[in-house]
Write a structure and sequence with these properties.
CATH class of the largest domain: Alpha Beta
Distance between the termini: 25 Å
CATH topology of the largest domain: BirA Bifunctional Protein, domain 2
Bound molecules: adenosine-5'-triphosphate, magnesium ion
Radius of gyration: 29 Å
Strand content: 25-35%
CATH architecture of the largest domain: 2-Layer Sandwich
Number of strands: 31
Length: about 575
């Protein structure tokens, strides 16, 4: 491959609308171009890296027993109505109509399609287990497409779906995918680690996300240093906050006291009232699927909105407006509570850390008043208890007791055990060995290829550009003759190396641009080829060429040894990623 025969439009300036470094590098290195927010064209170097990631994924999926298929991106809305997701996933669905005004969906994922296939094709226990996968474009109407390929409206995903006849079988399928994912990210040169995850709108009861630690990641991961525990903050738990919640109260009933102008936890914690935040009950009013509900949290805790959805089963949740709050509780935010004047048809959800709490302070549902000496069990009609809180750094790990840490990360893959959620709704059943008809047990497994590509860049870069791992680099080696005239010695040596390396299966590009060495060096570093070979007159005069690994020092080698050295560099580097 010759540089002038492909298309590598590198940029000197950092594009002003790219906020994170990996996004800037995608553009600067000429890997992609933006069509509009959330939509990108892959240029040759970006496409080559993408294809390498795709190949690794395909190999590992096949090795794990996956069967490749390709499903339509355009899907009839009926199957989405049948699964219930026409409504529950409505916020990400691109819905379209054809000329006959019939509704269609552009697939954000393919549980509905594959389960329909399984319902038709897999009918006897003898046909199981099966794991179908595809590598395909997905569409999601993201509220905030951003960070380049990280959160796009259209992106490429590998999605796999397992079908088993028993729960144990489904667990084994899950485990196989989990192990395959571990291998896939390792082979891509990515440090990704699995964390326990919330199952969100897809549903199911067992799930891990594969996370790449990065400051720019949109997820927060709670973990303990010894490796005993790691979970998405949406799901994470701990042994609880410190100090613990008061459990010794005084008095026979709540005691109302005036708090004019005191409308926050902090204000009540300050003089003259001086009620510590952990001795307060915070009362949040939410609209859960159009019904108002109270969520009671300890004053110093934050509500975790993923847990709110998971624990209440609500499909949509939003904070109530001030008008809705006044209509529900008769008071304004700042004076709200769960003890007095709560209508009977309003559900009251309370966070577990409030269990058994006594001597608490909360709003009186009368503007300008609070109640002292509130006891959860005595004074508040709790309809449901659950863990609704956001874990904080420093709390004790449920498994090891160590202090938990929190860091940001990029989710590149996600494995779910789905159970029978989709097979029930879409009638995927089979005739069991004993003659009974049973429902298949499913799992689903996704990797964002395009997001993974950018995550590699986010993790493998320096001030000069991308530092591709050999396994996913657009080209492994960049031959750089410093004189490109056809008869010049640098060009001839470079051409000979190109032939030898290509014959050995090395993926090489020859920079045949008539540019100054400085320009060529800068560009090859920006694009990030793992090894550059400088072929210049000065070195040739000493019988040498220079090997410049992207992340190491320049080494002179004898011309006659060059091909073998380069092949050795690539093969040993690739072996380390196998
Ligand atoms: P997120 O929480 O980031 O929105 P998700 O949990 O909705 O992602 P899944 O349904 O689990 O995503 O999709 C599987 C994989 O697809 C993700 O792990 C991620 O790598 C990728 N992915 C999801 N949404 C996008 C997107 N908008 N742009 C690029 N890749 C995406
Ligand atoms: Mg996910």
């Amino acid at each position: 491959m010759y540089w002038t025969q492909t298309f590598i439009p590198t940029l000197k300036e950092t594009p002003s609308d790219a906020e994170i470094v990996s996004h800037q590098l995608l553009l600067r290195a000429g890997l992609v171009r933006k069509l509009t927010g959330g939509l990108y064209t892959f240029l040759p170097m970006g496409l080559r890296a993408l294809r390498k990631i795709e190949q690794i994924i395909r190999q590992e999926m096949n090795r794990a027993g996956g069967i490749e298929v390709l499903m339509p991106a355009l899907q009839p809305s009926e199957i989405w109505k049948q699964s219930g997701r026409y409504e529950t996933a409505a916020d990400v669905l691109y819905k379209i109509r054809d000329r006959a005004r019939k509704e269609w969906v552009l697939g954000p994922t393919h549980e509905e399609v594959i389960t329909t296939l399984a319902a038709n094709e897999l009918n006897s226990y003898r046909q199981f287990p099966r794991n179908f996968y595809q590598i395909q474009t997905k569409f999601r109407d993201e509220i905030r497409p951003r960070f380049g390929l990280m959160r796009a409206k259209e992106f490429i995903m590998k999605d796999a779906y397992s079908f088993d006849t028993s729960d144990e079988g489904a667990m084994a399928s899950y485990r196989r995918m989990y192990d395959a994912y571990t291998r896939i990210f390792f082979r891509c040169g990515l440090k990704a680690f699995p964390v326990e995850a919330d199952t969100g709108v897809i549903g199911g009861n067992h799930s891990h996300e594969f996370m790449v630690p990065a400051e720019t990641g949109e997820n927060e991961v709670v973990y303990c240093e010894s490796g005993g525990y790691a979970a998405n903050i949406e799901k994470a738990t701990s042994r609880g906050p410190s100090p613990s919640t008061p459990t010794d109260g005084t008095g026979d009933s709540p005691e109302k006291f005036p708090t004019p102008g005191v409308v926050s936890i902090e204000a009540l914690a300050a003089a003259p009232h001086s009620v510590p935040a952990h001795a307060q009950i915070k009362t949040l009013v939410y609209i859960l699927d159009s019904k108002p509900a109270l969520i009671l949290m300890r004053g110093d805790d934050q509500l975790n909105s993923a847990k709110l959805l998971a624990k209440t089963g609500a499909i949509q949740a939003r904070p109530a407006t001030v008008d809705e709050i006044v209509a529900t509780l008769g008071a304004h935010p700042g004076s709200l509570g769960g003890a007095h004047n709560v209508p009977h048809d309003v559900s009251v959800y309370a966070d577990e850390v409030l269990r058994g709490a006594r001597g608490m302070t909360t709003g009186a549902n009368v503007d300008g008043f609070h109640l002292h000496n509130v006891e959860m069990d005595r004074d508040i009609r709790v309809s449901h208890w659950a863990d609704f809180r956001m874990v904080r750094a420093g709390e004790q790990c449920v498994e090891t007791g160590e202090a938990l840490k929190i860091r940001r990360a990029i989710e590149v893959g996600h494995v779910f055990k789905l159970g029978t959620k989709y097979s029930e709704k879409l009638n995927s059943t089979f005739l069991a060995e004993d003659g009974s008809r049973q429902t298949t047990v499913m799992g689903c497994y996704g990797i964002g290829l395009t997001r993974t590509l950018q995550a590699v860049i986010e993790q493998c870069k320096d001030k000069d550009g991308i530092c591709w791992p050999l396994s996913v680099a657009p080209h492994q080696v960049c031959l750089t003759p410093l004189n490109v005239a056809p008869e010049s010695q640098p060009r001839q040596v470079a051409e000979k190396l190109l032939m030898e390396l290509t014959a050995a299966g090395i993926d090489v590009i020859l920079d045949d641009r008539d540019e100054r060495p400085g320009v060529k060096f800068k560009d090859s570093e920006l694009v990030g080829f793992p090894l550059r070979v400088n072929v210049g007159e000065k070195s040739l005069a000493k019988g040498e060429v220079e090997l410049k690994p992207r992340t190491g020092p320049t080494q002179p080698v004898k011309i006659d040894d060059a091909a073998a050295q380069i092949i050795g560099f690539v093969r040993s580097g690739m072996a380390a990623l196998a």
